[in-house]
Structure formats: structure tokens, C-alpha cells
Amino acid sequence: MTAWRLGLVLAGFFAVLIVAPGWVAQQSPFDLDPARALQPPSAAHWFGTDDVGRDVFARVIHGTRITLGLVTASLLIATVIGGGLGIVAGFAGRWFDLAAGRFADMVQTFPPIIAGVMITGVLGPGAANLVLALAVIYVPTFFRIGRSAALAEAQLTYVEASRAAGFAEASILLRQVLPNVLPVLVLQFVIMFPLALQIEAALGFLGLGVVPPAPDWGAILEQGKNFILVAWWMSLWPGLFVLLSAAAMTLLGQGLREKFGR
Amino acid sequence: MAGFLARRLGAAAVAALLSSLAVFLLMRAVPGDIVGQMLGQSGGDRAAEEALRSFFGLDRPLIAQFGDWVGATLQGDLGRSWYQGRPVSLMVWEAFLVTLELAVATLLLATLIGVPLGVVAGIAQGTRLDGAIQSFNLVGLSAPVFWLGLMLLVGTSAALDWSPPFAWSGPGEDLADNISILILPVLSLAVLQAAAYSQFVRGLMIEELGKDYIRAGRAKGLTPAELYFKHALSNVMIPLVTFMGLILVQILGGVVVIESLFSLPGLGRLILAGIQGRDYPVVQGALFFVVIIATTINLVVDLLYGLLDPRLKP
């Protein structure tokens, strides 16, 4: 249970950074000043400065909203589309189930990061393409989860009873099956979050993420790698923030799983 | 068994064909191809543009282009790189050997670290030792692989005044150089996979040790060593094999970033460079190869699963 609490504390910390980054980091993440380039951490610049003299602390703090926001958006899309299609496939079955299943197979033949590199590499950098890539990668995961949950649900007596009572299929699906499948999808969202975050950061690191000068963590790391031996602080902090937020979601996921009792 | 194999092979072939089609369409769906890159900003010479497009076969209907690729691929010909003129199959093979060395070394190291950690944590469940191992797992699973690589670069340079060489040499050329190039990439990849292993094995051990036969064995007077290593561990082996396949596929993906960071001429870099240069045959061929490898690993794992556990024989 201490793990769950640690997860909550970390998540709370990141929630503050997302809601009020300017309150935590007073300096601008964009103001450049070549006169103070590549300075090591100091009282004035806690995380040091980057190669064009921007405050790394401000960039990392303001980057929280961008990086975690992009991952959240991607996974939300994947949950709604993948989970929705999965529920329909599991509940309605037949040709739709078969076609969607083939599509999921196809996407999952690629290791996730390779699919990400392919999509963002071809479409070009940019937040929208990044979200699209991550969503495509994770749609099959949520499809399968939603499908198997709906499949299990559809066989329960209450569905049979509702059918016998004359409820329309759509109404059974929306009013009864969906609320029962939703917690499973939410849990899956939390479990997938750290994985999607790693891919988001990796794509940013490869220069396939958001367009500069947005202070996305992966993008800061990409910029820092060229100065790694002279300015380690450009890389240490954004990576540490990826680590901490991934750990927070992992801990929350473990806690939720225990609460769900599985 | 034969029926099972045939069904799995059929499904894998369909998935491979569909994914190749997806790659093919994706690359052609966006503006900017190799001709655009060759002519650059100066473009405007319509005749040259058309001549080049027809040279690369880009003026033909999509279905014909894809059909040709499938036909040639089935005969083992992946075409030639549009940039280097070398056969794609050769380029993919050379890059694969680099990636394979990286992946196998990583898998070995991760298994050697992760499995014992997981076994110990499972046996010592709830103790401080278990807590320490679980903390390692959490950090290992949460830290970006390429960031670990960066930190290792900084650490070795500061502490040992040593940095890996940047020019690649294969194990056949100069083994010492080869090892010093690979050591940091392997370490950074292995931490993540060791943590994954350790986490997984810990769960398996705890589940196994809670079973009745362990209690019976204990009552019968078996020593803990016999219980843990002879009985529990041998039952844990089966899911472990499955997991190894999963890890291998993950490593195959993870190398993309690590190869780019350490400038290793592996599959990941080949794919990345191919996409950036719009070198369609290279991208198409390399991705097809990756898909085949990943699918094969999954298939082998499924088959091994059946062999190791006779109850599952279809």
C-alpha cells in the first residue's frame, strides 16, 4: 500500500506541474541568451542552461504538460476508438470482429517503436502526427481488451435477461455492457501509460516528435545528446522526469490492479 | 500439430502481407518522394521529373508497383537501394547481423541478471531484500533506455575517462573494438529487460510457492533448496520461455533508439535512414524483414510452449 501512496504523491506532483508550470518555474522556457549558454546547475538556474542559454529547469517543468498531455491524448484516442470497436466486435461479432481482428494483427506485427518511427518518419515531425502514431500503435491493445471484456460480458445472464425483456441491442450495449467494461479499459489506460510515454520520449529523442522549440522532454533530450559530454545537465533532468512520471503511473497501475482484485 | 502450425503460418502470412501493404501505402500517401528530394528546390523541370519518376517506376499504378514488389520478394529479391544501388537483401542482412549481436548479448545479460533477481525476490517476498529488488525493477522499467545510455556515456567518461569508439567494427574484424563499442548499448538495453524479467519471474515464483504441492513438499521434509530450485523453478521455466520471446521482440524494437545514439549500423538505423531519404525499397525490405523475424519469434515461442508442456499439445 506504500507503493500506491508513493504513486499518488508522484502523480500529485506532476498534476501541479501540469496545472501551474509558471507557478513552479518562474523563468521563461523560451528566452534565449547566448551569454549564459551551457552553464552548469546553479542557484540562478537549478537545472543549468542549454546551448542557447535557456533555463533547463523552466523547460523541463513547462515540458510536463506537453509530454504527458500528448501521451494522454494519444491513449484517450486509442481507448475510445480501440475500446469502442473492441466492445462492438466482442458484442456483435461476425464479420466486423474478423476484419477488426485482422487489422489489429497487422499493426501488432511491428514492434511498437518501429511502427512509431515509420508513421512519424513518413508523416514528418509535429504534435498531431506524434499523437496519431501513438494512437495507431495502441488501438489494437484496447481493441483486444475491450473485445474480450465485452465477449465475457455478453455471455452473462443479465444480458440474456435484458434481451428477453425486449431491450434493443444498442441499449444493452450502451447502458449495461459499456459501464461494466469501462473499468477494465481505465485500468488498461493506466497500465499502458508508462509504455506509451517511453515511445513518445524515444520518438522525440529521434527528432520525430514535436517541433522545436516546444520543451517536450524527448525533444530536450534530443537537443542535449549533442552536448552530452560537456553539459550532462541538459539530459539528466528531462530523462529523470520521464522516469518519475512513468514510475508514478506504474505504481498507480499496480495499486488499481490490487483494488480490482486481479 | 500440423493443422495448428498451418493455421498459425497462414495467419502470419496474411499479417505480413497486410503490414507490407500498409507500409507501401503509407510511404506513397504523403507528398515528397525520392524524385522531389533529388531535384530539391530547383524543381520545375517537368521533363526531368517525369523521366526520374518513370526510372524509379513511380509513374506506374500503385497496384502494379505493389504487385511487382510482392512477386520479387517471394523470389527472394528485395530490389536495390535507390541511393546506394546495393541489393536491399544484402544491406538488410549486414544490418541484421549488427542488431542480432546486440540483441543476443542483451538477452543473455538480461537473463543472467533478471532471472536470479526475480527468483530471490519471490522467495524473499515481503522482506527488505524483496523491496530493494522491486525498486530496481521499477526504476529499470521506468527509465528511458536511451537516457540510460546517455548517463552511462557521461558516467564512464567522468569516472574512467573512457568513451566508446564511434566507428563500427564487427566481431570478425576486431573483437576488442567490437566489445568496447557494444558494451554501453548492451548495458543500457539490458537494464530494462532485466527489470522486466525480474518482475515477471518474481510474480511466477510467488504464485508457484503458494501452491499446495509446495506445502506438501515442505511437510514431507524437502529442503528449501529442493523445493525452490527443483520443483518451483522447473514449473516456472515454461512461462519463462514465452517471456523470452516477448523480450526478444522488445529488444528488436528498442535497438532503433540505441543504434541511433551509439551510431551502430543496425536495422534500426537502416530503417530510419531509409524513411528519411524516402528510399522505398530499403524501408519496405527492412520492415518486411523485421515483421518476419518478430512473427517467427512469436511462432517459435508458441511451438516451444507446446513442447515444454505436454498438456497443451493440440
TrEMBL record, chain A:
It is found in: Cell membrane. The keyword Transmembrane helix applies. The keyword Oxidoreductase does not apply. It is a multi-pass membrane protein. Residues 64-253 form the ABC transmembrane type-1 domain. Its main location: membrane. GO terms for cellular component: plasma membrane. The chain crosses the membrane at residues 6-25, 68-93, 113-139, 181-210, 230-252. InterPro entries: BP-dependent_transpt_permease (IPR050366), MetI-like (IPR000515), MetI-like_sf (IPR035906). Keywords: Cell membrane, Membrane, Peptide transport, Protein transport, Transmembrane, Transmembrane helix, Transport. PROSITE patterns: ABC_TM1. GO terms for biological process: peptide transport; protein transport; transmembrane transport. Gene3D superfamilies: MetI-like. Belongs to the binding-protein-dependent transport system permease family. This is ABC transporter permease. The lineage of its organism: Bacteria, Pseudomonadati, Pseudomonadota, Alphaproteobacteria, Acetobacterales.
Automatic annotation (TrEMBL), chain B:
Pfam families: BPD_transp_1, BPD_transp_1_N. CDD domains: TM_PBP2. One of its GO terms (cellular component) is plasma membrane. The keyword Transferase does not apply. The chain crosses the membrane at residues 95-124, 136-159, 179-197, 236-262, 282-308. One of its GO terms (molecular function) is dipeptide transmembrane transporter activity. It is found in: Cell membrane. Keywords: Cell membrane, Membrane, Transmembrane, Transmembrane helix, Transport. Residues 96-301 form the ABC transmembrane type-1 domain. The keyword Membrane applies. It is a multi-pass membrane protein. SUPFAM superfamilies: MetI-like. Belongs to the binding-protein-dependent transport system permease family. This is ABC transporter permease. It comes from Neoroseomonas eburnea.
